[in-house]
Amino acid sequence: MALMFLSLGAGCTAPNLPSFSVFPQDLPSGDIDLAVGSTLSLEQTSLNPLERLKKQPQRVMTIANWTPNQNVELSWDETFERETAASIAARSEAERATGVGEESHVPEPVYETVSLQGSIKSDALNDGQRIFLPSEWQEREVDLGGSSSTVIWLSKAQYDELAATRHTKLSLSVFDQGLQQVADGIDLLKDLLAKAQGESIAAGGDEDPTEIVAGADWGSYTLKFNHEKVSVQTIQAENKFASYTILANPDNPLILEVELKAWAYGTEAIGLVTDDLKMSGYAVTEIYSNLPSQ
């Protein structure tokens, strides 16, 4: 069912939008349909503000299987440039060998092209409760079948509840593998894991860390769709740990952006997570539907 675009109400602010040289056209969110062969591109956004100053690689996801509100399978790849380990070691050694007042002879960095691939599938798009942040996807085939994780969509049950009542429950399936091992014996990371998974309730209160609350007005989000710059209608929702921009399409409630709230995790956690586990939110920048023109 197509939902027509509505302008932002007075006082509402849009999410962090990609910047374009011309104002995009409005597109009914119901027109953002997907099919086998559709592609979605996203950029990850680190918890650490300093990391956001760096250019982020694009992750391109291709839909291998798709039944709206039922199941999805994605293959993905990401290619980027990274300084080689030998280059890092050589530059570090050159810096240490330079005395006070001596001319520095630190070599220029040497980069290598890194290509990552994997796939992920879910059968929880009808009634799932969690999303699985792309920063935690592994370089292999990941089958979430039988779990409550919807990858990066709201489930039909969550979307219907959020649209009708402005409330639903959503937790982050982050750190299911790596952090659990790192967290052994480290109280800080144990607490972070519990918070992100929605397994702890705020001390001294009844706040549910999995509950997200939507704003009273529609939001908007700008991206490229089938190579055109468009603005689509969204539902804006948040809780203490993250904010969510959700496509206002009951047949494709794609979570277009997840913005993690760094302060909620603590400064120590930001450093540990960024350096060791690369926990991050993301923003979808482009969708190609692979569907015939209407």
General description of the model:
It is a single chain. This protein is an alpha+beta fold and 294 residues long. The chain has one domain. It contains 6 helices and 15 strands. The protein has a 5-stranded mixed β-barrel. A two-stranded parallel ribbon has the order 6-9. The longest helix is centred in the first third of the chain and has 12 residues. 34% of the residues are buried.
Strand content: 25-35%
**SSE topology string:** EEEEHEEEHEEHHEEEEEHHE
Largest sheet: 5 strands, mixed, barrel
Provide the gyration radius in Å: 21 Å
| Oligomeric state of shown chains | single chain
Q: Going across the biggest sheet, name each strand in turn.
A: 11-12-13-14-15
Category from helices, strands and their pairing: alpha+beta
Q: Helical region count?
A: 6
For the record, the count of structural domains works out to 1
Q: What does the overall shape look like?
A: elongated
The count of β-strands is: 15
pLDDT average, as an integer? 78
- State the helical fraction: 10-25%
Low-confidence stretches: 1-22, 175-186, 201-205, 272-277
Q: How far apart, in Å, are the first and last alpha carbons? A: 15 Å
